[in-house]
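Run log, item B.
One chain of 465 residues. Sequence copied directly from the ordering sheet:
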Amino acid sequence: MRSAAAEHPAWRRLAAAVEEIRPLQAKDGSIDAAAHDLADARSALGTVLDALTELAPLFPHDAAYHHAVAADLRTWADGGFGVPDFLDSLLEFHPERRREDGLEHLVVFPMYTQNGNPDRNLEAVLFRVVWPDWLAELERSRYDNPMFVPITFEAFTAGYDTNSAVLFPETVAVREVPVYTWGAIFCDREAARFRAVTTAAAATTRLNLPADTEALLNDHQTTQDTFALWDMIHDRTHSRGDLPFDPFMIKQRMPYWLYSLEELRCDLTTFREAVRLEAEGLAQARPIQYAILFDRLFRFPITGTRVRNYDGLGGQLLFAYLHKNGVLRWTDNTLRIDWDRAAPATVALLERIETLYRDGIDRPKTAHWIAAYELVAEFVTPHPASTWSRGLYAPWPEVLPLDGAPKELVNLVLADEFPLSMFYEALEKKLRPVIASTKGITAAAAPLTETTAAETTVTTERDGR
């Protein structure tokens, strides 16, 4: 569908004015009058308001929000562009109340973008809801998740020309934390970067791809549908199951492998549900299993920095578990997966994590942290300089200050407690350009050409190839 708003001249004026304001803002979203001429900011903000007024009739369902956000913008300017507070308009925006396939929204907020821009800059985003009948029926009858809103990009300002694939209310600058009622995920960006990275990784490793992965890798709509359902089940899993701690871990300081295990638990729970749905004949179920495996095995471990990269570690754990159980083999510069054993082995890892969680309900915090470390370290080798790793070979009280505050234990965790294996170091070098190319991606990614695929192979440095 074509977006009348994205093609409207008022959108281009609004986006351009936002980009004028962004360089003037500090990290907290304010504008320093001593460093910048506030007249420039007021002029640009006036353009934003005029354009918003022009565009608002295209979004009658967001009338209350657009009225409130205009008021918040004026209040921000009238207050001398201090730290912005858009709580009033945030409370008026409710995309979860009308989940209709194709419904468009226009939002303007001072916000940071997760996995994108860490500063609270003014951003404008045009997006469309993805809510096909089959997904709505699954949510209604089986995977109730009233806060979940899958979306696709129509247009956006610079904060989303990044790796960010979410629109979360908790990223908006507000005076106090409200009760959150929705969370939106850009399944089109997830699908596009998945196709780009997985196609390159499969060619590079000469993976034995099953024939039924063709649509997942070559048809954007199939992949987008896959991620919409994956995200819906994953999101609801954070609040379900035997949970020894706050599943969203908001404002909690814990060793980052706890976050790794939680995100992996949610993905593998989705995987197990997909196995069940496949047995019931759901067309989207088999692609979900492939998507979780490929994204976790290929993209997650080599994306982002190595500083407490909890998603990366979760991917490393899945790879190591499958490898040590003989399901996955890397031999002769070729990756082979025993597809008959892949599903039961992946579910078995989930059951290990679920047992950890169930037992954790009866453990004190530090004991649970240690048990989680032992589970990860059983498969992923810790850094040789790690203080924590000494507890694998000596009594824990002799290694860690267990009589002190828990934060002292967190301080002993290395930034990269579980480094990449030699396999992943080699893979990262080969796929680095592909990973970089997915920044800001929204459309279907072109697969590697046969020539390029033939020229890329993961090898050891000793080979010299």
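Observations after the first pass:
- The longest strand covers residues 121-129.
- The first helix runs from residue 9 to 21.
Flagged for discussion on Thursday.
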